[in-house]
Structures are given as C-alpha cells and as structure tokens.
Amino acid sequence: RALRGRPAAMEAREPLRDVRGALRAVLARLREGEPSEGREPFELPRFWDALGQTFQVTSQEATKLSLAFSRPPLPSAENCRKLSEDVQNAILAVATVYYWLPKGQGTTLRKMVRDATTEVVEGMIQLTDTILNAPVESLSQEQLISTGGVWEACEQVSNLPRGEYNQAAVVSALAACLGVVKDAVEEMEHALVEGQDPYGDIMEDEELGFRGNRDTYWSEADRQLLSSCMGLMKASKACLKKVLAAVKAHGKADSPEQIAQLDDLADIASEISPSVDELALSMYPPVNPLAVRLNAAKLASVLKKVLEIAKTSHVCPPPEEGWVQFLTGAVDHNMNKIKNFTQGQL
Q1: What are phi and psi of 22, to 5 degrees?
Q2: For 240-268, what is the mean pLDDT?
C-alpha cells in the first residue's frame, strides 16, 4: 500500500517541478537583466510600498507551501497546482517591482535592491527543492531551515536604505567598507605590538625550532617598513570616514549628474577594503618587501582616485577641500617612505 501511495505523492508534487523551473528562469533573468526605463513617472515611496508588499506576500506563500507539505495527508494534485501558482505569482510580482526601478535612480541603490530580490528567489527555489527531495511522510529539518531562509530574505527589505534616492544607498555601502577597513587596521595593529609573535596563536614554539626564524618574526627593517604601511592603512580609514561624512552632509540625488557622482564614489570606494586586505596579507612574515611595495602602491592609487573623485564632486564644496589635500599628502608621505625602504630591493 505504501508503495502504491508513492507515485500518487510524486504526481501531486509535479506542479512544483514546473514552478522550480520557472523560478530558475526568473533568477537567471534577474542576474543578467537590466530594469526597463519606466514610461510612467517613477515615485520612490510607491516603489518601496510595492516592494515591501510583494516580499510580505512571498513570505506568506512560503509558509503556506511548507505547511501543506509538512504532514500527511499531502495536498491533492489540484491543491498543489494552486499552491504552486501562488508561489510563482508572488515571485513574479517581486521581480516585476524590481524592474520598476529605473537606472536613473542610481546603480548603488539598484544593486542593493537586486541583491535582496535575488536572495528571495534563491530562497524559494531552495524551498521547492527541499520539498521535492524530501521523503513524503515527514517535515524535515532542511524544510524548516529553507522556510526560515525565505522569511529571512523577505525581511531584508526593511533593512534597505530608503533615504533620499541613491544617497542613502551610497551611505550604506560606504559605511560597510569603513567597517571592514577598521577591522583590518585593528587586527594589524594588534599583530604589530612590539615583540609579539604574529603566529603565536597558531603555532607552538617547539614546532618552529629556532626562535629568531625569519619566517615567523619581523626584523627591525621589516618593522620600519610596516609602520609606513600602517600609516597608509590608517589613511584609508580616515579617507572613508571623511568621504562618508561628506556624502551624509552634502550628498544629493536631485540630478542625474549628482546620482552618477555618488555611484562613482561608491564604486571606487568599494576597491579600498580588498586593497587594504591584500596589503595586510603581504605584511605577515616572511616579508617580501617588493610584494609589500606593490600592494601599497595599488592601495595608494585607489585612495588618490577616491580623493580626486570626491574633490571634483558635489559632496566636496570648495570650503571643504582642505581634508582632501591633507589626506592626499598623507598618502604620498607614507608611499614615499615605503619606496625609500624598498629602494635597495629593486
């Protein structure tokens, strides 16, 4: 009897397979696709309301679907078709609202909304997968986790930056970069504390043998070079802090030009934290001074570009150009010291 019930159960879930295929197509389109330029006048408050509603409906549909397949008796083929249709419609509505958002609103804002939208679609695909692969009789741990995953993705909509158009999105992106750079600076400062073994928490001394091993300790010359690298890392932190404050104070999104300037700042600032990380990694012993110099030069060039873009944009009115000059000087000063320390290596 149990065996006879199985094909029927499989059949009941058939519409879910079709939905999974449709959702995968939506996901592929979201990943490649560009929103269309809407013909109607675009209203941001209306957009946020609609996006919030579609995310909420999707969360509810995920709950209904999960409950229907959580215990016997399983939904009939007809009910499963209805559930599947509702899920598909909810996801199509989410994607449609994302497509309302015109390019002119700024690429930083669009990227954040697109990431949130794809996360919801991925969550729903994961949930349909789990239900299709689960044994029919029971609610699996995976199904609970997948349902929670959709809820969580749908709640992300409330964390999206909703201030003045693109400005709030750029503030949020810059603040995230600053957080990462702050952590990297603190970690490096901690490792560089005088006399500290940078690998002390990883290896036992007996394994290393000779305590003066160049591979695990910094020489005096290394430390001199690294103090200028720290100077450059701190300049990165100061640079992001100042740009963030300038965008908060003066950032506007009233014209396409202002929106584009904010996007340019967010784009180039996003290169700071990976460049800081690469420099920090090359600072661990054994130090290769040329690798350090190369990574430092890359970071310095990113910082100079950020400062240049800030200076020529609306977020930096003439009375505020002082901090741009000061930080440009700090970047040059540390880079020159790094060049001097590594000159003999060339």
Answers
A1: -65, -40
A2: 92
